[in-house]
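REVIEWER CHECKLIST
Item 1: Sequence provided? yes
Item 2: Single chain? yes
Item 3: Sequence as submitted:
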Amino acid sequence: MKPPPFEYFAPASVKETLDLLREHGDQAKLLAGGQSLVPMLNFRLVRPGALIDLNGVPGLDGIREEPGMLRIGAMTRQRAVERSAVVRERCPLLAEAMPQIGHVQIRNRGTIGGSLVHADPAAELPAVVAALGGELIVRGAAGERTIAAADFFVGYLTTAVAADELLVAVRLPVAPPRAGHAFVEVSRRHGDFALVGVAVTVTLDGSGVCTSAAIAVTGVGPAPVVAADAVAALVGQRPATTAFEEAARRVSAQLEPHSDLHASAEYRKQVGGVLTRRALALASERAAGASR
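Item 4: Structure as written out by the authors:
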């Protein structure tokens, strides 16, 4: 397997990268970790005229705290995010999801921004960002703009990033006090893409009543599914099996997955509900423990 011919560029700055994107337009592809792009090139599923390598561009990686937020540079390796004490403390849902992404060798090279822009419908990171209501920072010739997670994932392998724009960072809210989280998924083998995955957060008040929650499901459509109606079954309630089951029922009812070689649509709908119930129970248990 050999990739099709292309021009290779190794820019040394964000400005140079944006100049190349403006010059080559939709004929250009950005190379970050290459864990998705390189196989697609070798199978000739994509045929770019220009390949722009981001690995020599400074300032696109790193993890830093901002007021109420965690900012992660787009070129930060997934393994660095997974091993970060700051991520574990401030954004535990992200930390819990990271080991589910492929294998260690993949995470050593794969980047957080590359996964988000690739927007695979079965990927873990888009679901985490959607559940947390994250912000995606992109930069283009017209300057920098912020895209809400709800508007970022447009469809299958498609995001709101324009052809002449570059994702530079993702911003995620830090976990509030008395908050719990859970990320659970089902896959054929560890490291395979999720057949279904669920990201959940639950926040309780001092008396143990749910004040806010979020549920996002991956592997069940062209983009992460945020289950707002299911959350309504939880807010204002004390965590209990009946509330979890009602939320799970609403998630299953909302999902409209397609069947494929790996699983039927009916299986994905049912498993989406089952995983939601499990994730909510675990997240609520963790939230209750954090409130003590």
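Item 5: Key structural point noted by reviewer: The chain has a mean pLDDT of 96.
Item 6: Recommendation: ____
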